[in-house]
Design a protein that fits this description.
mainly alpha, AhpD-like, 9 helices, globular
């Protein structure tokens, strides 16, 4: 097995040091994902930028952000991101019923959020080749054309983190281990 280093502020490549310092300021620690991504400064910078844009510049509210993130994390069976986004959802004060439905792949508490999960999974599973009918169903659920495209931004962000965690087998951060998760059933990776 190939081992990927979890970089620290002291041993990170020069191009990643300021990014890790920013992570430490924001989280009070360097998340394991960021420590692994630091090996490739451009990846870490790109990921952090997409995260910032998706969280702060899209039109999604906290519940909708969580649905997009976790739908993708669960679909990709990301052992690291599902617990991390469970903790993030708690910090954002997202209803636990939403988080549990996403983690367990059970119905969400509203048809609106379920439509968002469905469309997000269609984008992921069909690699963006969604049908006009799928887009129209999403729009009919109260979403906008802007949000169709914002889902793509969320997918791009999560591909970066989910794929990194699969390849590097990033250990779940201690603070998030209480939210440990495994994909259930035949779809497990």
């Amino acid at each position: 097995m190939t081992t990927f280093e979890r970089h620290t502020l002291e041993n990170a490549p020069e191009g990643s040091r300021a990014l890790l310092e920013d992570s430490k300021k924001g989280f009070g620690r360097v998340p394991g994902l960021h420590a692994v991504m630091a090996e490739a400064p451009a990846l870490l910078e790109g990921y952090k930028q997409l995260h910032r844009l998706f969280q702060h510049e899209t039109s999604f509210d906290k519940d909708e952000l969580t649905v997009v993130w976790q739908a993708i994390n669960v679909e990709h069976a990301c052992h690291y991101c599902v617990p991390a986004h469970t903790g993030i959802a708690k910090m954002m004060k997202v209803d636990d019923a939403i988080t549990e439905a996403l983690r367990n792949e059970t119905p969400l508490p509203s048809a609106h959020l379920e439509a968002l999960r469905t469309f997000t999974l269609q984008v992921v599973r069909q690699r963006g080749d969604v049908t006009d009918a799928q887009v129209e169903t999403f729009l009919a659920a109260g979403f906008t054309k802007r949000q169709v495209l914002e889902v793509i931004l969320g997918v791009a962000q999560k591909v970066m983190s989910n794929y990194t965690n699969h390849i590097a087998q990033t250990p779940v951060d201690e603070v998030m281990q209480q939210f440990a998760w495994e994909k259930r059933g035949a779809d497990a990776a």
